[in-house]
Amino acid sequence: MKTFYITTAIDYVNAKPHIGHAYEKVTADIIARWHRLKGEDVFFLTGTDDNAQKNAQAAKEANLPTMEFVDKNAKNFKEMCDIFNISYNCFIRTTEKRHIKVAQDLFSKAFKSKNIYKGFYEGYYCLGCESFKTEKELVEGKCPEHNKEPELRKEETYFFKLGKYKNKIITLVSSKDFIIPKERKNEILSRLKSEDLNDLSVSRQKSEWGITTPIDKNHTIYVWYDALINYISALDPPKGKNFKKYWPADIHLIGKGINWFHSVIWPAILFSASIKQPKQVVVHGYLTMNGQKISKSLGNVIDPVELAKKYSVDSIRYVFIKDIPFGQDGDFSEESLKARHNNELANDLGNLVSRVLTLTEKNFPKGLKKSPLDKKLTSKLNIKKIDFHMQKLELQQALNEIWKFINECNKHINDEKPWELKGKELEKHLYTLTESVRIIAILISPFIPETSEKIFNQLEQKKGTLKDAVFGKVKIYKVKKGEILFKKIEMKEKTIQPEKIEQNLDKVDIEYFKKIDLRVAKIKAVSDHPNAEKLYLLVLNLGKGEHELQVLSGLKGDYTKEDLLGKKVVVIRNLKHVVIRGVESQGMLLAAVFKNKVSLIEPDSDIEVGAKVM
Ligand code: ME8
Question: Quick check: CB of 224 below 6 Å from ligand 1?
Fold first, then answer.
C-alpha cells in the first residue's frame, strides 16, 4: 500500500497556542485526510518543541519549574489539536526519552565522524527564533521576525560542519519541487549562492534546560539541531518498523519563517548521518491581522481554543482555507468567518442537505430505491480536478470546486422543483440528489470532518472513501433528517442588501480580487528598454527577504527617470511574467489615468516597502 508521511513544525511551548499554530495543523490535517481518503497508509506527525531556551525563560517568568510549565503548555497544544480534530498518528514531545536517545545518538555519530568539533562562538542570538543572526539579517539592529534586539553571546561551543554540505544542499534545493512554493525555493537558493555557509553552533554551555550532549556533560544540544530530529525520532530509527515504512517524509509542512532550518540545516544533518532526504518542504504563509503576523512575540494573538468555543470548528477550518491562498499570507477576521459560515456553510451546504433530506424522508419513508441518475447534474462533478488541485496542494481551489458542485445541486433543485414531481421522475431527481449529498460528504470530509460525519449519520450510511465517490453506489436510502448542520450567526452589523452588491460590484468575483497580491514597492533603478522606446525598465524593491521585481512600464510621457527613482509605488506582485521585445516584465504598477495623464498611486511616506495593499 502506498504510504504517505506528513509532518508539521513542532511548536514552542513558551505560551499557549495561537491561531497561526491551529492554521498549520489544520492544513496538514486536510492533506493527511485527503491521502487517507485515497486509501493510502498515512502517518501524520505533530508535537511540541520542549527543549527551547525560550520555554525555560518563560517558565522562569511564570515562576514555575520548567518541566511543569512545559508539560502544562504541551498539554494545551495537544488539546488544541484534539479540539480542531487534527487526526495525528503521533504527537511527539522532544522531552520524551525516545527522542532524546535519537538526538544524542546522531550528535554522537556526527562527533565521531568529525562533523562536529569544539570551538568558540561570538555572535548575536535571537531568543524568539532560537538562532544566531548575522548583522545582515537584522533590521535597525533588531530581528525582523520578532522585532527585538538579539543578545550578544560569547561562549565555547560545538560546531556542526554545515559549510561542508553547501554544494550538496544547493543541488537538493535546486531539484524540482523540493521546496514549494517557488518563491520560497528562490529565497533559499539566492541566500545559499550569495552568502558563506558558516558552520553552525550546535551546543550551549552549562544550560539548565535542554538535552545534554552525549560527548560533554557541560553542554546541551542546540534546540534546532534537537528539534529537527523529531521527524525521525518519532519513527524509531534506524531499525524501527515505522522508520523503514515511512521515511523519507513526503511533506514537511512549515511556516515561512523556518524554511532555512528545514531546507538547509536539516538536509545537512541528514547528509552527515547518511540518512535519506525528505521528499518535500512545503512552506505556508502567515495568518495576519490587519496585515501583521499573528504571533506571541508581537502580542496580537487569537486563542484558537477560545475561538472554537464561539464558532464551530468546521467553520474555522473552512475559513482558514477559503481566506488564505495556500502558500501566501492571509488575513484572518471574525467578520469573514461569520459571513462565510452564514452564506457558504449554512446557506449553500446546510440548506442543500436539509432540502434533499426533508424531501426524501417525506416522500420515501420506507426507503428511496436506486433509480436512474440525472446526468445533467452528475456530469457537473469533476473529482479528478479536485484531486489534481489537492495533489498540487491548491486546497482553496479544491474546495472551490467542491462548492461549485454544491451550488449546482442547489440550482438543480430550484430548476427541477422536485416537490412538484411524482413517481419515477421524483425518484430519479431525489436519488441523484441524495447520491450527490453522499459524495459531497466524502469530498468535504478532509476539510470539515465533523459536518461530513453528521451528513453520513443523517443518510444512515457508512463513511466512504474516494473509491465510494461514484454515483449509483447505494441501493436504498432510509434517511433520517437530524438537526440542522449550521445555525446562522446573527450579524449585528448592518449588512448590505444583496441587490446592492450586485449593482455595485459589477460582477467581479471577490475571490478573484483577493488573489491579486498588491504590494508597496520602491523604485530602485530606472533605465530605458533597449528595444522599445516608449518603455522604462524599472527595478522594484519589495523589502527585506523579498525578490526584486523587474517591471516594464510605459511612463515616459509622464515621469522622468529622476521622478521615478526612489518613488514608492503599488505593484501587482503575482502577475504572470511576460516578455516584451526580449525583456521580461514581472509585474505592473497601479496608476490613475485621467485625460491621458498617468498618475502613479503612491502610499504615504510612512508606509513600509513590502506592505500589503488591500
Ligand atoms: O518555529 N501563521 O515553533 P513556533 C501561520 N519550534 N503559521 C504560523 C504563525 C502565523 N501567524 N506563527 C507561527 C517553531 N506559525 C519551532 C519549529 S520544527 C522542527 C521547530 C508557524 O511555535 C511557524 O511558522 O514558533 C511554525 O511552522 C509553527 O507555526 C510553529 O511555530
Answer: no
Count of beta carbons in the 10 Å neighbourhood of residue 314: 23
Which is the closest atom of ligand 1 to the Cα of 21?
A: 29
What burial letters (b/e) apply to 84-114, b meaning 16+ CB within 10 Å? bbbebeebbbbbeeebbebbbbbbeebbeee
Within a domain: 485: no
Q: pTM for the whole thing?
A: 0.81
Which domain covers residue 557, as residue numbers?
Answer: 501-613
Give me the active site residues, please.
18, 21, 126, 129, 143, 146, 293, 296
Task: For residues 160 and 283, state if they share a domain.
Answer: yes
Q: How far is the CA of 79 from the centre of ligand 1 (A)?
A: 17
Please tell me the residue having the least CA distance from ligand 1 atom 10. 20
Which domain-ending residue is among 422, 444, 477? 477
Residues 109 and 199 in one domain: yes
Q: Are residues 293 and 186 in the same domain?
A: yes
How close is the Cα of 576 to the center of ligand 1, in Å? 30
Residue 326 resides in a domain:
no
CA of 527 to the centre of ligand 1 (A): 41
Number of domains in the chain: 3
Provide the grid cell at 202.
Answer: 550546535
Q: Is the CB of 304 under 6 A from ligand 1?
A: no
pLDDT in tens, 451-502: 999 999 999 999 999 999 999 999 999 999 989 999 999 876 444 343 344 4
Residue nearest ligand 1's atom 8 by CA? 20
User: Same domain for 473 and 508?
Assistant: no
Model pLDDT for residues 399-443, shown as the tens digit of each residue: 999 999 999 999 999 999 999 999 999 999 999 999 999 999 999
In a domain, 491, yes or no: no
The best mutation among 13, 25, 49 to test binding of ligand 1, ranked by most ligand atoms within 8 Å of the C-beta, falls on 49
- Whether 138 contacts 158, CB under 8 Å: no
Q: For residue 23, give the ligand 1 atom closest to its CA.
A: 5
**pLDDT at residue number 502:** 41
Is the Cβ atom of 111 under 6 angstroms away from ligand 1?
no
Which pLDDT band holds residue 505 (cuts at 50, 70, 90)? very low
Atom of ligand 1 nearest to the CA of 231: 19
- Select from 7, 207, 211 the least CA-distant residue to 108: 211
List strand residue ranges (DSSP E) for 427-577, in order. Answer: 476-477, 518-528, 536-541, 549-553, 568-572
Give the residues across from 12 on adjacent strands: 49
Residue 554, C-alpha cell as written in the block: 510605459
Last residue of a domain, one of 310, 325, 358: 310
How many angstroms is it from 286 CA to the middle of ligand 1?
Answer: 9
**Structural domain contains residue 495:** no
